UniProtKB/TrEMBL annotation:
<dbReference type="InterPro" id="IPR010376">
    <property type="entry name" value="GBBH-like_N"/>
</dbReference>
<dbReference type="Pfam" id="PF06155">
    <property type="entry name" value="GBBH-like_N"/>
</dbReference>
<feature type="domain" description="Gamma-butyrobetaine hydroxylase-like N-terminal">
    <location>
        <begin position="7"/>
        <end position="91"/>
    </location>
</feature>
<dbReference type="InterPro" id="IPR038492">
    <property type="entry name" value="GBBH-like_N_sf"/>
</dbReference>
<keyword id="KW-0479">Metal-binding</keyword>
<protein>
    <submittedName>
        <fullName>DUF971 domain-containing protein</fullName>
    </submittedName>
</protein>
<keyword id="KW-0408">Iron</keyword>
Length: 120
Protein backbone atom coordinates (compact mmCIF):
# COMPACT_ATOMS: atom_id res chain seq x y z
CA UNK A 1 0.00 0.00 0.00
CA UNK A 2 1.42 3.34 -0.99
CA UNK A 3 1.58 6.17 1.51
CA UNK A 4 -1.00 8.94 1.37
CA UNK A 5 0.13 12.01 -0.53
CA UNK A 6 -1.30 14.19 2.26
CA UNK A 7 -2.66 13.82 5.78
CA UNK A 8 -4.10 16.97 7.30
CA UNK A 9 -5.65 17.42 10.73
CA UNK A 10 -8.48 19.96 10.66
CA UNK A 11 -8.74 20.71 14.39
CA UNK A 12 -11.72 23.05 14.19
CA UNK A 13 -13.73 20.40 12.34
CA UNK A 14 -12.20 17.44 14.22
CA UNK A 15 -11.50 15.53 11.01
CA UNK A 16 -8.47 14.15 9.32
CA UNK A 17 -8.31 14.62 5.58
CA UNK A 18 -6.36 11.94 3.74
CA UNK A 19 -5.42 12.20 0.06
CA UNK A 20 -3.90 9.39 -1.98
CA UNK A 21 -1.67 9.52 -5.07
CA UNK A 22 -4.45 7.95 -7.18
CA UNK A 23 -6.77 10.88 -6.41
CA UNK A 24 -8.88 9.25 -3.69
CA UNK A 25 -9.67 11.62 -0.80
CA UNK A 26 -11.40 10.94 2.50
CA UNK A 27 -12.59 13.09 5.42
CA UNK A 28 -12.45 10.93 8.52
CA UNK A 29 -14.17 12.37 11.62
CA UNK A 30 -12.48 12.00 15.01
CA UNK A 31 -15.40 10.03 16.45
CA UNK A 32 -15.30 7.54 13.57
CA UNK A 33 -11.53 7.11 13.87
CA UNK A 34 -11.83 6.62 17.64
CA UNK A 35 -14.57 3.99 17.53
CA UNK A 36 -12.76 2.14 14.71
CA UNK A 37 -9.34 2.34 16.38
CA UNK A 38 -7.11 -0.56 15.32
CA UNK A 39 -5.96 -0.99 18.93
CA UNK A 40 -6.42 -4.32 20.70
CA UNK A 41 -8.45 -2.39 23.29
CA UNK A 42 -11.11 -1.79 20.63
CA UNK A 43 -10.60 -4.59 18.10
CA UNK A 44 -9.74 -7.33 20.57
CA UNK A 45 -7.56 -10.21 19.46
CA UNK A 46 -10.21 -11.87 17.28
CA UNK A 47 -13.10 -10.55 15.15
CA UNK A 48 -15.71 -11.61 17.72
CA UNK A 49 -13.96 -9.59 20.46
CA UNK A 50 -14.52 -6.13 18.97
CA UNK A 51 -15.70 -3.62 21.58
CA UNK A 52 -18.43 -1.11 20.75
CA UNK A 53 -17.08 2.21 22.02
CA UNK A 54 -19.93 4.50 23.08
CA UNK A 55 -20.04 8.09 24.28
CA UNK A 56 -17.45 9.56 21.92
CA UNK A 57 -19.55 12.06 19.96
CA UNK A 58 -17.37 14.98 21.08
CA UNK A 59 -13.96 13.29 21.08
CA UNK A 60 -11.19 15.40 19.62
CA UNK A 61 -7.81 14.74 18.10
CA UNK A 62 -4.83 16.25 19.90
CA UNK A 63 -2.21 15.20 17.38
CA UNK A 64 -1.26 12.82 14.58
CA UNK A 65 2.20 11.26 14.84
CA UNK A 66 4.08 9.41 12.09
CA UNK A 67 5.04 5.80 12.77
CA UNK A 68 7.88 4.88 10.47
CA UNK A 69 6.94 5.03 6.80
CA UNK A 70 3.82 2.91 7.12
CA UNK A 71 1.35 4.44 9.59
CA UNK A 72 0.26 7.17 11.98
CA UNK A 73 -0.70 7.15 15.63
CA UNK A 74 -3.65 9.34 16.51
CA UNK A 75 -3.76 10.81 20.01
CA UNK A 76 -7.33 11.57 21.05
CA UNK A 77 -8.34 13.96 23.80
CA UNK A 78 -9.84 11.06 25.78
CA UNK A 79 -6.16 9.97 25.98
CA UNK A 80 -6.62 6.93 23.74
CA UNK A 81 -3.39 6.65 21.75
CA UNK A 82 -2.64 2.94 21.29
CA UNK A 83 -4.00 2.47 17.78
CA UNK A 84 -1.56 2.49 14.89
CA UNK A 85 -3.39 3.37 11.69
CA UNK A 86 -1.50 1.78 8.80
CA UNK A 87 -1.89 3.26 5.33
CA UNK A 88 -3.93 0.20 4.34
CA UNK A 89 -6.23 0.59 7.36
CA UNK A 90 -6.74 4.32 6.72
CA UNK A 91 -7.64 3.53 3.12
CA UNK A 92 -10.09 0.85 4.27
CA UNK A 93 -11.67 3.23 6.78
CA UNK A 94 -12.18 5.78 4.03
CA UNK A 95 -13.53 3.34 1.46
CA UNK A 96 -15.87 1.63 3.93
CA UNK A 97 -16.86 4.69 5.97
CA UNK A 98 -20.56 4.69 5.12
CA UNK A 99 -21.03 0.96 5.79
CA UNK A 100 -18.90 0.87 8.94
CA UNK A 101 -20.63 3.95 10.39
CA UNK A 102 -24.09 2.47 9.74
CA UNK A 103 -23.02 -0.79 11.40
CA UNK A 104 -21.66 1.12 14.39
CA UNK A 105 -24.90 3.10 14.81
CA UNK A 106 -26.95 -0.10 14.56
CA UNK A 107 -24.77 -1.80 17.20
CA UNK A 108 -25.16 1.17 19.54
CA UNK A 109 -28.92 1.04 19.13
CA UNK A 110 -29.11 -2.72 19.62
CA UNK A 111 -27.19 -2.40 22.88
CA UNK A 112 -29.03 0.65 24.15
CA UNK A 113 -25.88 2.76 23.99
CA UNK A 114 -25.42 6.36 22.88
CA UNK A 115 -22.86 8.41 21.00
CA UNK A 116 -23.20 11.02 23.74
CA UNK A 117 -20.98 10.81 26.82
CA UNK A 118 -22.68 9.83 30.06
CA UNK A 119 -23.89 12.73 32.19
CA UNK A 120 -21.94 13.33 35.38
Amino acid sequence: MSAPSEIRLKRAEQVIEVAWPDGARFRLPAEYLRVESPSAEVQGHAPDQKVIVAGRRHVGIMRVEPVGNYAVRIVFDDLHDTGIYSWAYLRTLGAEQETRWATYLAELGARGLSRDPPRR
